[in-house]
Amino acid sequence: MSQWIADDLPTFAVVGRVNMGKSSVLATLLEIDDDKVVRISPMPGETTHCQILPVEFDGEEHLRFIDTPGFARPVEALRAIEALAGGNPPGLGDVGRFVAEKREEFPDECRLLEPIVEGAGVIYIVDPSKPLRDASLAEIEILRWTGRPRLAVLNCKEELAKHEEEWRIRLGSAFNLVRTFNAHRARYAERRRLLVSLLEIEERHVERIERVVESLAGEWEQRREEAAEALLDFLESSLTLREEETASERDLETPRRRERLRKELEERYHRRLAKFERVCLQSLLRIHRHRRIEVEDGEAGFEGIDLLNEESWRKWGLDRGQLTAAGAVAGAAAGGAVDIAAAGHFLGIPTMVGAGVGGAVAFFKGGSLPEIKMKRGIPIFAKGGGRTLVVGPPDSQNFPWLLLDSILVRYRKILDRAHARRDPEQFASENEEGEGAGESITRSFPPERRKVLQKWFSSCLRSKPARVLESDVYKELVEILKEIEG
Fold this sequence. Notes:
The chain is an alpha/beta fold. 51% of the residues lie in helices and 11% in strands.
């Protein structure tokens, strides 16, 4: 009985020369960022034995990959197999004899070929930035002799792999299919495409592989919905956030004490807002199975978006024209509520006035620098007197859009983060790098989407979230995340 192959279970051995990226491809394809499961290192030869990596849905295994050690002496192994064939064209039987008889002389080759001899298909990983040498030609020939279904994967670590065409020509004559896959950049669509490629080389397990592809699509849709819920919670918590403190009349009348209170309230407000962001980002990372990355708390950890940074307000959120239109919509909605309450006796005048005022406020405040004012609340008539002081949110119509942009930009970074990467990642929005990395996403929204979001934003800023709008806002967030996925 085979230790690698199970009845009616499609199984593929992932093979290649040392340091070609076998483990990296598997880590990204299967979303494994745990070194205890798949070890990835710049040092060659990290995988020293075969390891089963199952693809499971609802607790049931549907597909199996086997991570194998790299070829160590492929040229010598090729000659040994040819000698076993006795002058005849080598085939699967000769490769099987090689595995059975040459374990001490060729331990790595025998270990990686054993699952293939027992029935596993072949996924051969190569790095097309490296030239095609005799060792690679020997590997290709040995794998061809097995007669198993064979997929060659060009693990393109660079945009332009200078030896790619040479590899394609040679692989095309020995493999059923050749595909490209960048293990350090591949997103969901590329992962799905690679899995679909297995359907083209393995006809015996079409139904099983199709089920895996369908399950993957369903799981991804569920992730998108969970991410939208996390965004919705983050936005509502942030937009309704207020920090309060009771102050005595003496504190209020003394400039130094009043300023100290204002600064303390602002600091508390910023800390709580950063906490909401951190919790949301951690949820998004968990949803997409990034277990290695923690959004750290504390002074040296995640500080959240800098609301005192002019650059943040310049590059994110809506432009002034868009803010004016969105503000007019929110103003008209408020005016319409008054008109309805008056049974229409005002003939729509409050609606028109509300639209005009809303648009004007958005225009004049939309481009202003952020300001968090300290408001004096209701007087306290109990012993000692004083007032309740309230801080938050920033006095800018662009604040909700800036919040949404900042979290969407980092969500895009999460999607771009392939699981094969082991380098540290910064998810603070001010550290965005790369062309288009920090550009506003919300400015490209269609007008109807901005209207829906603005109405809900306005209700949250009044600390009265419109529950009747939440379903529409949730649907828009789902569509936004789908568009970011590309």
